[in-house]
């Protein structure tokens, strides 16, 4: 390999730790249930009960998946009385989902 090309690649390549974090980030998107929940949340901020109805799952199963999504900073929550509402953490999540859909529809 050309030495200049090697230096360019070495400079551009993210550190191993960052690549590992990125791999973990994308693993979250590898689950159809989590993708379904994220897509439902693109429509509106919803409670666990509403999400469960929308995706046809138990509240317990939805809560488990929301915990995973929250740990990876993909969703945020807001409390209103006893009810907790969930929504995408930021616009990047919307972009990632839309880009993925566009890619597979091409």
How do the strands line up in the largest sheet?
A: 1-3-2
Give the name of the CATH architecture: Orthogonal Bundle
Instruction: Tell me, rounded to a whole number, the average pLDDT.
Output: 95
Gap between N and C termini: 34 Å
How would you classify the helix and strand content by structural class?
alpha+beta
CA-based shape: elongated
Number of helices: 6
Relative helix content: 55-70%
- CATH-assigned fold name: Arc Repressor Mutant, subunit A
Entry summary:
By secondary structure, this protein is an alpha+beta fold. It has helices at residues 3-12, 16-28, 32-43, 48-55, 59-71, 91-105; strands at 46-47, 75-80, 83-88.
3D architecture notes:
This protein has about 110 residues and is an alpha+beta fold. The protein has one domain (about 30-105): Winged helix-like DNA-binding domain superfamily/Winged helix DNA-binding domain (Arc Repressor Mutant, subunit A). Helices cover about 65% and strands about 15% of the residues. The chain has six helices and three strands. It has helices spanning about 5-10, 15-30, 30-45, 50-55, 60-70, 90-105; strands spanning about 45, 75-80, 85-90. The protein has a three-stranded antiparallel β-sheet with strand order 1-3-2. Strand 2 (about 75-80) and strand 3 (about 85-90) form a beta hairpin. The longest helix is centred in the last third of the chain and has 15 residues, at about 90-105. The radius of gyration is 18 Å and the shape is elongated. The two termini are about 35 Å apart. The model has no long low-confidence stretch (mean pLDDT about 95).
């Amino acid at each position: 390999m050309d030495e200049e090309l090697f230096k360019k690649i070495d400079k551009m390549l993210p550190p191993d730790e960052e690549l590992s974090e990125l791999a973990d980030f994308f693993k979250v998107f590898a689950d159809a249930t989590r993708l379904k929940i994220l897509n439902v949340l693109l429509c509106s901020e919803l409670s666990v009960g509403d999400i469960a109805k929308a995706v046809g799952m138990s509240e317990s199963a939805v809560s488990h998946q929301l915990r995973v999504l929250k740990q990876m900073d993909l969703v945020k929550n807001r409390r209103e009385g006893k009810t907790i509402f969930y929504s995408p953490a930021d616009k990047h999540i919307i972009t990632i989902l839309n880009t993925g859909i566009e890619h597979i529809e091409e």
